[in-house]
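Notes from the 1:1 (GR / supervisor)

We went over the backlog. Supervisor wanted to see one worked example end to end before approving the batch request, so GR pasted a single chain during the call. The sequence is below; no edits were made to it. Supervisor asked that the structure be written out right there so they could see what the output format looks like.
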Amino acid sequence: MKRGDTAVFSLSAVLAAIVAVGVAYSLLVLDRRPSGPTAAAGDSTSSLLVLTWGPSLCKVAPSNPGCRSGHVEQLGESFVLHGLWPQPSTEQFCDVPSRVAARDRAPVSLPPDLQTSLAAMMSDPVITTHEWYAHGTCSGVAPPEYFGYATTLTEQAGKVLEPLFDDASGRVLSARSIRQTFDAQFGGGAGKRVGLACRDAGGSGGAGGRGSERGSDGGSVVYEVRLSLPPVVELPTTPGGVSLREVLAKGPAIPAGCGQGRVP
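Structure output shown during the call:
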């Protein structure tokens, strides 16, 4: 074997190992998987668009792959797309055995422009595969549509949330103020479809990145915003034409979540 061939082979092996570790990480620590029989697609009653504040992610879980690589920091003070999750939470791994090793799952095929959008919104590229198998398989739509909805809605939500979080940097932000902002931007009642998650930034997050969810404790940071939407399969036919204002109005009301937390 030529020296050049050896180098290419070694690099490929290293990259494959990195991808395998990344996917395994996302499977083990990012989402809580329910136990029980495999779910069937199309049974969801609603969905949640889950967005993580990037600075909070790296504050709570500095060992997160996207934080270690510097990718999340490069995204700046913005929200990271965690996922679009069919509800209830038992709607996971539809028609897919949840215990199948990550390395045995085929990568998700997506158009180049959508891959680019996801790379600019997610903490780590390998999470895309996990999010599809864990959640997208229960959506009732194909991968391009599923991630198309997620990116389009994330962009619209970010235009409202990011200025709010930027202004509150270093200070405490309440669930009430976020809900009031959504009412003002999207009409009365929209705020009832918004939930806030706070997590302990005291270093207990570890590699898992979950930390401990807290209420209004001074040691907690605002971590995630969750938007309640209709089932993914009931969203408009064209993902690019989906309106956050319209779909929020059709989502069920959800708890406000934690009362308040500090914005890193």
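Supervisor's comment: Residues 3-30 form the longest helix (28 residues).
Batch request approved.
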